[in-house]
Specification:
The chain has 81 residues and is α+β, with helices and mostly antiparallel strands. 38% of the residues lie in helices and 26% in strands. It is built from 2 helices and 3 strands, in the order ββαβα. It has helices at residues 24-36, 48-65; strands spanning 3-9, 15-21, 39-45. The protein has a 3-stranded antiparallel beta sheet, with helices on both faces.
Length: 81
């Protein structure tokens, strides 16, 4: 069984995931490392629900890094006439 670590920055509320992690012991070390940095963290088994949450979070992160191109009349022109 593999695990994921869900972490949240206490100050900003920012969410993050680490995984998959193959051993329970390594996942516990990952939790301890994040907690020592001021984050809350929890070890979760790799279930279909957890993997779906990780994929959704990963899509959000990717969309923030690379927002979709504008659409509409001027979208293809980059707003330049």
């Amino acid at each position: 069984m593999s695990f994921y670590v869900r972490r949240r920055d206490i100050e900003t509320g920012r969410l993050g995931w680490t995984g998959p992690i193959r051993s329970e012991r390594q996942a516990e070390r990952e939790v301890a490392a994040w907690e020592s940095c001021g984050w809350t963290a929890e070890k979760l088994p790799s279930t279909p629900e957890v993997r779906a949450d990780v994929r959704a979070w990963d899509r959000e992160v990717e969309e923030r890094r690379n927002p979709p191109a504008p659409t509409g009349v001027l979208g293809g022109l980059g707003g330049v006439l």
